Amino acid sequence: MANFDENKHPRDDDGKFTDGNGSRWTTSKRDYSNVQGGEAQRVFDEAKQLGIDTKGIDNLDVIKAKVEEKKRLQSDGESGKIKQRNGFIDIQLFAPGIDKQSRKELEKTIKSTEKKIAEHKDKIQNPRKHCSDWDEISQIKKEGRIRFWEKEIQNQSNQLEQANKLLKEKRDGKQ
Fold this sequence. Notes:
Order of helices and strands: EEHHHHH
Number of strands: 2
Number of helices: 5
Strand content: under 5%
Structural class: mainly alpha
Shape: elongated
Radius of gyration: 27 Å
Number of domains: 2
Largest sheet: 2 strands, antiparallel
C-alpha cells in the first residue's frame, strides 16, 4: 500500500478523506492507495515507452523528472522544423532568399556560414569555453547540446553547399 499520511489528508464529518479544502476525493486508505498506484503505473509505463531504465529507482518523483527531461529533449530537437509531408520540407536546409542573392551577397553568405561552422566545431571541441554551466548540467543535457551543435553544422554545411552551387552557376553565367 502507498504511504498514507492522515495529517495531510484529513477526514471530513462523513469520514471521507479530503484535500484539506473541503473537496472529497477518496473514501478510504484503500482508495487512496489505488489513486497513487494508478499514477505510479502510468509514470512507469511512460518511462518504459521512452526507453528509460527504472530498475533500482523507487522514488516516483525521480522517475517523473527523468520522463519530463527526456520528453523535453525530444521535443527540443524538432523546433524550427517542418518535416517532408504534404509538399513541405525542412526549412532549416535553406537560407531565406538565397537564390535571389547577387554574387557579392552569396560570397558574404559563404564567408559567414563558414565562420558559423567553425564556431560550432569549436563549441564541440571546447564546450566549457562557450557554456559557463557545462560542469553543472546533467550528462543528458550535455549530449543534447552536442547533438544540437552537430545538427547546426549539418544544416549550415547544406546551406554552404547550396550557396557555392549558386555562386558557381552565377560565375558561369547560367543565371
